[in-house]
Write a structure and sequence with these properties.
This protein folds into two domains: 109 residues; 78 residues, no CATH class. The chain is built from six helices and three strands. The protein is elongated and about 65 Å long. About 3% of the residues have low confidence.
């Protein structure tokens, strides 16, 4: 049975995160070889969808683009560390000390990636999400992207549930505050992506 685009993108996201874990294990001395087979599988899937971008929905193209960017960042990081390893410029550590050093490096890389998220906070506003579905898609994609950057699980996040949520939230705020428009903001706070709603003044 052929997989859907969403299933392939979910698998792609999972494989990219697994690739990062396996490379960390390799550089930390826990694996003898780099995960070449997993890397080949990711490359193959990315190539397949780069040739089919016209067949994807806007939200799928947006997600594919984010995953491609994430993979490119990881690839560049792995390439530099591989070069250091081959040149013998990486000091080898063992046991608990090695794990502690790797954890600190991972945390520092995470902080660097967060600081590169120049497109947040992301803001949209509308009167009625039912009639402004393009904006709802953009907000959904921005929120998913924020979660990806924070390393959060995006599988429970579906467009259908998201549309229901913003429709109910918009109606609730408009009634409570007697407002015409509601503004939604996606921000990165600490280690989490946040979605906030407020009436437009």
């Amino acid at each position: 049975m052929a997989k859907t685009v969403e299933e392939d993108l979910n698998q792609l996201e999972k494989d990219i995160r697994q690739l990062k874990i396996e490379y960390e294990q390799y550089f930390g001395g826990g694996k003898k070889r780099p995960p070449a087979e997993l890397e080949w599988r990711i490359d193959t899937l990315l190539k397949r969808y780069s040739d089919r971008s016209a067949q994807m929905k806007y939200s799928q193209r947006f997600r594919y683009s984010n995953l491609t960017q994430m993979y490119s960042k990881f690839r560049e990081m792995f390439r530099k560390r591989m070069k250091q390893k081959e040149e013998g410029t990486v000091q080898r550590h063992f046991g608990a000390a090695a794990r502690e050093i790797e954890a600190e490096r991972a945390r520092q890389r995470g902080e660097t990636q967060k600081s590169e998220a120049v497109h947040f906070p992301f803001t949209v506003c509308w009167k009625d999400p039912e009639h402004e579905k393009k904006k709802v898609e953009q907000l959904f994609d921005a929120f998913r992207d924020a979660k990806l950057q924070m390393g959060e699980d995006t599988k429970p996040l579906t467009m259908e549930a998201f549309q229901r949520f913003v429709r109910q939230k918009t109606e609730q705020l408009k009634k409570q505050k007697d407002a015409q428009e509601v503004e939604y903001i996606v921000t990165l706070e600490g280690d989490h992506a946040r979605l906030k709603a407020r009436v437009k003044s």
